[in-house]
Specification:
Layout (H helix, E strand, L loop, with lengths): L1 H20 L7 H53 L5 E2 L4 E3 L3 E3 L2 E9 L6 E10 L5 E12 L4 E11 L5 E9 L1
Antiparallel strand pairs: 1-8, 2-4, 3-4, 4-7, 5-6, 5-8
């Protein structure tokens, strides 16, 4: 798209220059005004085309992101739903401050085992933007946490995320 935008803007500039300089020797105020009006019309038309192209590209990207998120969420739910004899322990899972690692969002996950025996945990982490819109979701496993102890793992987004990224525990299952 950047190349297309550059080519289109160059074409607009060339057209505007041609319209403003014209092919005639007539340089009366009305002919200059008419040429300026034509140039403005051409520029507005080009801007509309760019706007439509940019809107279509943004819509396409949003659709791809929504599809990727829906797929990741479905996979996360599937993984958590397959756990036999799991106990919902969302309040026993805490997250650190999100960061990045080679473009991917990351966050430390700490779980506390309040059971009386060694347990494992599956924690679903939703990565969101600053407005709370979900960008990605992952499931991280913290295995073999001794009774009364804590265990840690790092959740990592499935793809690069940009902007301010926050994280929240969506679900946590102890098994």
């Amino acid at each position: 798209m950047p190349r297309t935008k550059g080519v289109l803007l160059t074409a607009v500039a060339v057209c505007c220059a041609a319209v403003l300089t014209g092919c005639s020797d007539e340089n009366t105020p009305s002919s200059v005004s008419s040429a300026a009006s034509k140039a403005a019309s051409i520029a507005a038309s080009a801007a509309e085309s760019l706007g439509a192209e940019a809107t279509a590209a943004a819509s396409s990207l949003a659709s791809e992101a929504a599809s990727a998120f829906a797929s990741a969420t479905a996979e996360a739910n599937k993984q958590l739903d397959e756990i036999k004899n799991g106990v919902d322990v969302k309040s026993d899972a805490k997250l650190g401050t999100p960061g990045t690692d080679q473009g991917r969002a990351t966050v430390d996950v700490t779980v506390t085992n309040t059971a009386d025996s060694t347990k494992s945990f599956a924690v679903q982490v939703d990565f969101t933007d600053s407005s709370g819109n979900r960008l990605d979701t992952v499931v991280v496993t913290v295995s073999d946490v001794a009774a009364g102890r804590t265990g840690t793992a790092t959740a990592r987004s499935n793809r690069d995320l940009s902007g301010t990224v926050k994280a929240q525990v969506a679900r946590a299952v102890r098994y």
